């Protein structure tokens, strides 16, 4: 069941326009504030219901400089693309408004009504639920979402088709179903009835009422600018720190054994990565000097740089801060990128941002679920996520820091910040423990590797990759 | 003829690494400074010459956090994409270094050697020349470019292919030619001999020398951090201000004639735009309140919002300022966007930026040619550029400003800045005159429309579009 508007009253056009513009400006001013928000307007519905006209009318009432309209042709779902990937780059920054014509629901409906290969209804419902969850993550991260279904009865649709300029038919046919086919129309209506209850349905028989309703819904959303939730909901349950983080096992390996095994493994790993038909995302986290760079180097040893990309993650830039935390990772991960390696990652939210207070309690505490959903979406899109925590002992870190300070071409690797982070050693261990407790999923498990012996650690990393790729 | 390095001396690895890192940091520090620069490293050459190995070795010598490596599969040229479009988003920001494996030269060579449809050599040479010009624009806008050809003799290539692990062959075959085919090899060598002289050729027989030469070339480029050119080269030759800007003709049109003609024209224009097989970019410039918004509204009147996108151009953001001025337009124009309308545009460089001093003399004075090249590239990629200057009289502007101040839902359209711009009226007229003088090209002509009568102006805009689309 979807809500239907009943308490709708038309407003004076002038009044509506003034209020819309004021609300636009008020929202624009929230950028960087404690009630910052952007608004994403998802527009779907029956052809000829007048989505386009309603958006054009809205554009005339608002300040058009601050309303972007984006329309994509539908993307039929395929296996290596999450439903949000084609759109993530467009997610509006704080203060912005975006109308999205083509969106994940367009794609879902197109995929579901695909003649040769329709979606079954269980999968359809799963998608709808994932979309709702994704939108909830957007909302929690200051991107408010409003979803409007422009509805039109079969009868009215047919009479509008009859009245249409024949040269326009061609264009309309390109976008969607055969609107003369009652079975297809009914099927679409049946599918959209399975959408979640937060959709707003606008009956488009009457054009003036349609445009007014649409604009008033947008106005109501724009005006809603609550302060952000910053406090945690309850007491935080700190996970127990695993022994391997406190006392990483010390192991020995002979130079000869290392070299032999390394050679074998690098070659095996490169082939395994290259010929797996999934995309692979490899994530490295761990204390400074734990050996992330060295491990990455061995993974790519036998690969050609055209086969992979290494993403080195530093502090976000200003334009990234104006969007959801995960946004810069959504946009970095491209479906056509076969092997992506992250030197630090989205776990920064629950590591440095948690510890240094860049994220407030509400933000970092809900981030575990956001991250899990993100990784699940990747997994469902045939992208394997392999996660490493490199566990170094505090003593060994000190030895490496000092050695870096004494080696001219390594000196750049060690900064005052590294020494400061070291002072928060225990906080990082706690944060790591919580990460393992909450994000060690079936679909994206953690590999915790003891790294006091660098050579041993590198071999372990390679073995873990093979294991997760099911190669023995 | 390409230059060959003769005076090459290997450096101590440690020394080379330290110098590279220092140079990296020095360049990183230039961000926002008067010697700001980024570095783009284009890497091409013969398969198995060791491009990948050399880049990996460079990554080990430098601070890998500040060296991005990007590799795309080749894009065969098609008609609606300029050669720079697939790469423009990746152009590095000030302080950054990017190695581009797949790049416009890869695409050119792939297109030229395309079996079924090879490029003829005149077209090939034109592309090479356009690429050089584009790179010069990058350099002038703080993106330094270095182009390296990794060369390998036929004999060595064959012996490396013989030594190769058979499972790797599959991968290598995917990227490029049949390297066992001497004719294809010779053809490639012949083609790259037609490249410009600024290529650096590295002979890759010896691996150590190859990696050293590559790194040393990069080091030399990194170290070169001259102060930017800010002064103009000579005295500026101001164009004469056309009469239409000073005294836009006053015309009358009856309400009835306007409505009738408008209806006819909007319908004609929407069909013309929709069914033209080119992409169309429509640009609006002109004084504040000249009627840009109203004209745009009539163009899209009969279009569906899924058919076009309106780009409203405001001041650049910080991350945009760290790239060439045209960058934000390169990235906004997507080949799959059929109709793009710009409410203000790249002409901001030679209007507001010139007048307010946001661009220095050298910058705005060379911008005319940069813009011409940009529009020519679009034209050559089957994208029609239609440019409008809406010419309002100073008196009429005042009337419209005052009316805006008195109308509640138009009040937002008028700000103190608009009144300030009005004080610089004559500067804007001069700047406009120079624009017409220098950017009124065959492939992208200007339409100057008198707009004191809004209705008349809207009809004129629609007629001009039809005219440039060759519709009568």
TrEMBL record, chains A, B:
Occurrences of domain Polyphosphate kinase-2-related (ranges): 13-224, 253-470
The species this protein was found in: Acinetobacter faecalis
Alphabetical UniProt keywords: Transferase
Protein name: Phosphate--AMP phosphotransferase
An MF annotation (GO) of this entry: transferase activity
The organism's place on the tree of life at top rank: Bacteria
TM stretches of this protein: none
Gene3D superfamilies: P-loop containing nucleotide triphosphate hydrolases
Alphabetized InterPro entries for the sequence: P-loop_NTPase, PPK2-related
